[in-house]
Amino acid sequence: MCRINLSFKLIVLALFCFALNSKADVARPDSVGTVPDGKYYYIPDSLANDVETLLRGHSRVVDDDLNLDLDEKVLVNGDTVPIALRDRNLGRFDRGLTNLLYVPKGQWTFGLTASYGEISTDNLELFGLLTDVDITAHAFSIKPYFAYFIKNNLSVGLRFKYYNARGDLDSFNVDMADSFNFNLHDIGYKAESYSASAFLSSYVGLSRNGRFGVYNEVELAFASGSSDFTRPFGSEIRNTHTGWTEAQLNFSPGLQVFIMKNVAFHVSFGVFGFYLRNEKQTENGEKIGSRFSSGGNFRFNIFNINFGIGIFI
What is the tens place of the pLDDT at every residue in 11-52? Predict the structure, then answer.
């Protein structure tokens, strides 16, 4: 039954496509069953929406390529450019994907990405079961950037980042049984780092008016920073200082939407990357060791989600 209904609808739509001119309007019959004069045609109510969509050229019966005219052009800086970007097919099969113009060549963009998080004993109900618990921690990062679009939907740019984190455990007492009790106090951790990176961003437009888009970003970053870990040891406070330098290659997809004519909101996700890291440690000013490490991260990190605002000129 479903196949019969679908075939009948396609036949009716095809007949309307060839029989009606593109300027014809669609109308439902009035209450007394008469057909209005002029450029109107009687159709059943069940087909009204389908015929209207067909006459506007948005039906997949007429056009099976994102409802686009591949030769359609849009005005950009006084010149007309195609709205559908033709890309060379690199695979064995042409999958019919069309990239829409999102940001044209020659535009500059600059913006800021920031993140902040904090935790304290007031926010954790679990600590209500314990006594004498005092923990606070926060992490903050700010990343200004600027970029230039060397091609339609393709930009290169520079980004700078400052990161600061601090955590303090002033007291943490556990006394649940005679054989299970301990006391931690006066433990602190702080970290600070700076980085600079070059990135390449490739965008894919999702709408004809260039409002929504997704992108993938490849970033080569160099960073330097330090951290300090303090804790009591006997009758003194020991401090372990770690200095490090690092090189990273990161891949981050994201989503962007223009909330105003020249202002866009974006969110990106750290998915995977590679790093090389060199560390040196001292304890109370005396060198205790060094380490060189490398590795890769191939998993989605929920704590590496960044939100930002960009301005396009």
Answer: 555 555 545 444 444 444 444 444 455 556 667 777 777 777
Are residue 59 and residue 115 in the same domain, yes or no? no
Using the CB atoms, write b or e for 175-213: b if 16+ within 10 Å. eeeeeeeeeeeebebebebebebebebebbbbebebebb
Number of domains in the chain: 2
Identify the CA nearest to 221 among candidates 241, 248, 186, 258: 248
Q: Which two tokens stand for residue 145?
A: 């950037």
Tell whether 244 is covered by a domain. Answer: yes
Confidence of residue 84 (pLDDT cuts 50, 70, 90): confident
Q: Give the C-alpha separation, 115 to 305, whole Å.
A: 8
Residue recorded with tokens 């299970």: 180
Does residue 285 sit within a domain? yes
Sign of torsion, CA 76 78 81 83? positive
In a domain, 73, yes or no: no
Mean pLDDT of the region 232-255: 89
Residues 14 and 115 in one domain: no
Supply the pTM of this predicted model. 0.63
By C-alpha distance, which of 277, 193, 195 is closest to 227? 193
* Amino acid occupying residue 234: G
